[in-house]
Amino acid sequence: MAAGSARIVRYILFASFFLAVLYFASHSSYEGVQLKPSTFGVSPGSSITRPDKSSDDGSGASSWGSKPDGSISNSPGSAKNSPSKPGAGSPKQYQDLAEAPMALSPSDQGWNDLLGTAPGPRMNATFVSLARNSDVWEIARSIRQVEDRFNRRYNYDWVFLNDKPFDATFKKVTSSLVSGKTYYGEIPREHWSFPDFIDQDKARKVREDMAQRKIIYGDSVSYRHMCRFESGFFFRQPLMLNYEWYWRVEPSVELYCDIHYDPFRFMAENKKKYSFVLSLYEYEETIPTLWDSVKKFMKNHPEHIAEGNSMAFLSDDGGEKYNKCHFWSNFEVGNLEWLRSKAYIDFFDSLDQDGGFFYERWGDAPVHSIAAGLLLKKEEIHFFNDIAYYHVPFTHCPTGEKTRLDLRCHCNPKDNFDWKGYSCTSRYFEINGLEKPQGYEEQQE
Ligand SMILES: Nc1nc2c(ncn2[C@@H]2O[C@H](COP(=O)(O)OP(=O)(O)OP(=O)(O)O)[C@@H](O)[C@H]2O)c(=O)[nH]1
Ligand SMILES: [Mg+2]
User: Fold this and answer.
1) Who contacts 351 (Cβ-Cβ below 8 Å, separation ≥6)?
2) 257-279 burial: b if 16+ Cβ within 10 Å, else e
3) Which atom of ligand 1 is found nearest the CA of 392?
4) CA of 216 to the centre of ligand 1 (A)
5) The pTM is what?
6) Fewer CB within 10 Å, N or C, the chain?
């Protein structure tokens, strides 16, 4: 009996010792490996500091923190982006992230490193979307595409702007999709209403007339507020003041190819200020006096007109008449400091005073494009051939099969609008002395 008890005690002691060893081994292997931020391509001293998404239970609205300006920053799903939780795959390590190469073509080192967090510095940049609560599922589609093709490796922030408060569903859905931080701003009334110098009766008659003539969005008040806001105010919203670069994303757009490098960094390193993927002619009926207003601005502010500008993109006769070419502004990657410059603000104010946002139906696309064409040097405007894009009804699909295969594109090259008669992209190539990509002739019809 005594011998039996001693054996049991020995068993218990042995089992306890064995369990202790097991616990110690597993515990030390978990805590003993310190994960450095650089392991996942996050530099402690990189050029932008972005606070980690604060953790929460992911349960929704209660976890969003209010910002001083009344907007809301989200945090659901935060853990997925913290440095200790990398995305799928095995990210490459670089001692000094600022030195990490930017692979711009398949022969460059790192081109195919599409897993995990991308190395390299981050720019002070954000995506920005103007949207209504009812746009939630359409903007969700766009976000998913931008994330899958690019941002899941870069985790840039996303600012959402609305003339009404965003609802909980909009915030919950969008914040779950964006890999960076999300912010929600409400537009002040003075940026989304008739300025007091506008004659309301005159504006109403214009809308009635345009409705009769069946001009698209011709009878819409909100569309006009939207165009004026995108022309003159989005870049001055408090949330946008935190950033130097923006990438505009609209609901229901598509991205057809992988984006292998950081377009923000490309813009910064190559001194670009504005960019586009599609260009076309504007409907004459929406802008009958826009160019008169532009000419008045040029006369009053010759100091703002850049030497070596893109007037030849906008006019075929040295500036007398507008040829209606513009960059399609539902896609833009651009520099916010430029939009906030005195030159751009003087340009916007001058046009705004002439009233054409309400007495006609001036779009933000021709307004931004004319500004870029006149206030910037032509080398400061960039065409992103490798960002394949769709916004109803036009497609930009890179010309050249090799490019499309290298970029894993899923667009039909026949849909490419670049070289068709209604596109202005040929003109952009010509005024910049650029060689058109091989195979463009076959896509002209
Ligand atoms: N908050 C808010 N956003 C709007 C309103 N109208 C348009 N938007 C947004 O402004 C942007 C441009 O509006 P769209 O309706 O896409 O205009 P569009 O691209 O000219 O025309 P579509 O062919 O219909 O896409 C989109 O991001 C819309 O979500 C509005 O009344 N309120
Ligand atoms: Mg749109």
Assistant:
1) 231, 290, 293, 294, 297, 357, 362, 367
2) bbbbbbbbbbbbeeebbbbbbbb
3) 23
4) 13
5) 0.80
6) N
